[in-house]
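Our consortium's second objective concerns turning raw sequence data into structural hypotheses that experimental partners can test. To show how far this objective has progressed, the report includes one record in full. It was chosen at random from the queue rather than selected for favorable results. The single chain below, 217 residues long, was entered without modification.
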Amino acid sequence: MGKFIYQALDITAGYGKKIVLKDLSLDLEQGSCTFIIGANGCGKSTLFSVLAGIKKARSGKFLIEGKEAGEKQKQRMTGYAPQESPLFFELSVKDNLLLWYGGKEAVETAADGGIIERLGLRELLKKRAGTLSGGQLRRVCIACAMAGNPRILIMDEPGTALDLECKEILQACLREYRKAGGTVLMSSHEKADWEMGDHVYLLSDGKLQEKDMTGSS
């Protein structure tokens, strides 16, 4: 690590007249795992959607490998699993995955020893998304975010509704993803999760403060 793959510099963003992020900056090292923590409503989801190119910032700039990046490039480089499910509930799991993976062959590859199989989704492919449990929906959303093996994976509370076994599977997938050079940015309310992070930042009053997880802040 040490090489910055993604940098957000002096970012300000919000909704209407409300400012949520204020001149916020964040550097992500290639191959690292970074956690953003904070109280509900502090702006984590806003930050993630801005970094993923879903929402535009009011000011600031973004650098990918040192070069300024626009919304489309951010979207190409990142895989994003938001808190709210982006799935079409009237479609089957397989049809939802086809939308993200871009074709039958890519889905079949991911379902045959790839991320779809590893997340335990093969037996769910024919089921309608609207019939899945909360944990099953989260796993499908994570599989969608990892379509195309993005270089940066952004996940907003990915462990929500997952049982212990599924969390362990997800952590194993993330370790493998990072070994291959992938970079992870995620949020979690569970302190046990933070141990896998290289950096943990507290988001408060629109800005980030790095936490010293050895005992002092």
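The partners drew two points from this record. The mean pLDDT is 92. The chain is about 30% helix and 30% strand. Both points have been shared with the crystallography group to help prioritize constructs.
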